[in-house]
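G.,

No rush on this.
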Amino acid sequence: MSDQNNNHDAPKNRSGEFPVSSRPDERAAAQERVRTFPYRFPRDNRHLGGKFDVKENSRRLMRYFYFERRLMHAVGAWTLAVPEFEVKVECGRHLFYHADASKLLRERLNEQEKRLSTIDDYRDEEIDRFIDEMLSAEDTAEFLVGLHQVAGKALETAYRHHIDDTDPIADVPTIRLLQRILLDYEPMLDWADAAIAAYIEGGIDESRLGVRRWHLQRLLGSIGGVTGKDERNEEPSPLRITAKPFERITAPTRDNRFVTFKNTGDYNVGDGEARFPAESYEDTRLKFIRTQRDEVDAIEAFGTFLWDIRFMDFKAEYDLARITWDEARHTEIGHRAMQAAGYEPFELPNRLTGSTCRGPMEPAYAMAEINLFGEVGVMKTINGFIDEARDRNDALLVHIADFIRSDERTHVKKGQHILHVMTDLDMQDLELKTRELFTECMVSLGGWTKDLDLFTMTREDIEKFIGE
């Protein structure tokens, strides 16, 4: 064969431009077919091209994923420490928004040929340092400034820039998922701005929040911002975590609108006297509504579990985040149901028993308390309660209990996987140890006095005292 057929001898095109082999008759025929085609569909004005190849796209998405995962952890760590009712409920909601964002980003990274194990094992010490400093807030107002006005706003901006800069055709799955995330970000950040304004109007020093905002913005800038590609400034000094590393608190907090009790799980005892005859339908009805409002403690429980098992298993983290969101909805349901039933919600004392016991517990036992006893206990009784409410034409209770029942069924199922992540104990040993720990807690609170040296609370006792 002739050497001229050897591809190695062909001239190389270094301009990136290649000849077009278009034939005039074929082009004219195509143009005529287009001209006579009867439908004029909307014109797609997108064009190929973008700033990122797959490698750079994945690098940025990995940082977004890690930021979202760490913000999910961070909100969980603060759920016990937030005293204000409305803010605690929003934390339960926002925790899930960050979890859902991280799940979407994780799925997209997996589509771009990253193994799930690689994604889940990703760590960034600089981002961790920022999160830890953000967590070291003096109060909830400072925490919201860092969470929303610094980290949240920076992520929102990064997502919008990514949408503008990536290929609008080749990378449309990334664009779509970022747009979906932004659907949650817009109301979340708007709420945060209004909440911080409420803190300031209520007496929080605005200049202190301004100092904190600037400090965290500079710290974020020192790690190259959300993408890691921004020009870096010097790290601010001093950092609070240098003097005192962050540790979550263990005791539940409530704002001063609440009257609280923790020495018992029985509302009639906590109230001082019964409002209705014990075990009557009216008594059970009010207890059910109050229990939903008091699932504000379940926001604390599941958020805290999420923090305590961080990085152990992404699915467990995500399921905990979803349950936390559900419990935030249950809290809202209870609050609104109190109003619909004719009460000022804050006139009815808030039961702190569950959170008081769970806060210091190891996560496996605390999770077992709420899942094996509280939620399973609800499932034992709620069907009969709904039937009785229907027989009495109690439309309010039928309506809210129907939704709550479906949620609790899901929580019981999800809880089994979460417990297996938390502990290697079999269910029998886990149940027994949890009963022992809860009994010790109730004795210390003065809410349990039966045969102290010999008696461990039964499953039914604990179900009554938790009432989740």
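When you get to it, here's the other one too:
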Amino acid sequence: MASDPVVFHCDADAFFAACHIAEDPGLATVPMVVAGSPSDRRGVVLTASYPARAFGVRTAMPLGRALALCPSLVVVPPAPALYRQRSRQMRAVFPTFSPLVEPLSIDEAWLDMTGGWHLWGPDPTHAARALQQAVQAACGLTVSVGVSANKMLAKQVSDWSKPAGITVLWPDEVPVRLWPRPVADLYGVGPKLTERLHHYGIETVGQLAALDDRRLVAWLGQIGLSLRARARGHDAAPVMRPMPTDTRSVGAETTLAQDVARASDARPVLLALADHVSSRLRAAGLLGRTVALKYKTHRFVSHTHQMQLAAATCYTDPLYRAAVRLFETRPHQDPVRLLGLTVSGWEAPSLQTRLDEGDAPQEEARAKAIDAIRQRFGAGAIGPARLLAHAPDLGGSSFERDHASQGPPDRGAG
């Protein structure tokens, strides 16, 4: 049994609020939220302490609404430096339990405990409890732990008994414990997708798990097959270490004028991002195979979704096709307010023997002509014709050294 797959998902409880409570224990018993200024788009609750949640205050709620529900609410401004410090302290604990750790965001990570959990006791919950105690001692935070045989199920159940809970769900328990739950409880199913599933009469996870291929694809497209696999408890993705922090990536991102949920609405932005990033790749003499889409939902929750190309590239079209595919298959289907595209995974130019489609020499010649025009007349002098009426501002572009999972604080859940 010690060699059977065991994965932990470790998730800090009310992370942003907990960081402030660790600094000032007097906040532990009062209703408190971390929130920005109500005068701009960030005037929402980033996270609420558990006493505040007792009043109905929730993450992503407008601050004015939160104050109406709880007039005695203590409002603490965000402190990104504090969150990074506490996150580093928490993450320093994980390698003492497993050599294989995959950060998911600033306050959560997967640990592959296969073959190692038995060092702490007769079942994995003993190791989970030891992990909670070690994190508490290291940084003053409580964490909840989901335990299962794969990443998806561990993530699915880590919030079932918050705060400071430990929940175990093995694949053979899925029909009894997961299928009766509302479909909205399934990891990756947001409000819009829930509404769509309800339209087709899908109310529970079990009903989704029972759908056949024909109806799934007709109703939801290819994303439906992925969701059904989750509903059945299937996930073959391994726990993976992040790329080294000194691995460079070229990226660009932009905040959207309006939230978008449909790929057709996102395509102009994705094309502009791909065109911008490809130009910078060529200027730097880089070819990359790893394409990552960053997106921030209308609830101010950031995620990344990435894929490997068949061949390393520095051209717009393969990056654009990858960006569209990543958008269409993103696990979180909520409307998004920010989109970003990054490329990494460098290969030497001699390794590029072909593009995914088309003729490489023609693509290279076209790219060189475009770059020459931009160098002489400016970046806006030429670009894809499809962008003539849809050119977003990419002033937020960046030449990055950050891995997606090690970026700034991105959510207040917990």
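The two ends are 31 Å apart (CA to CA). Residues 263-284 form the longest helix (22 residues).

Enjoy the weekend,
O.
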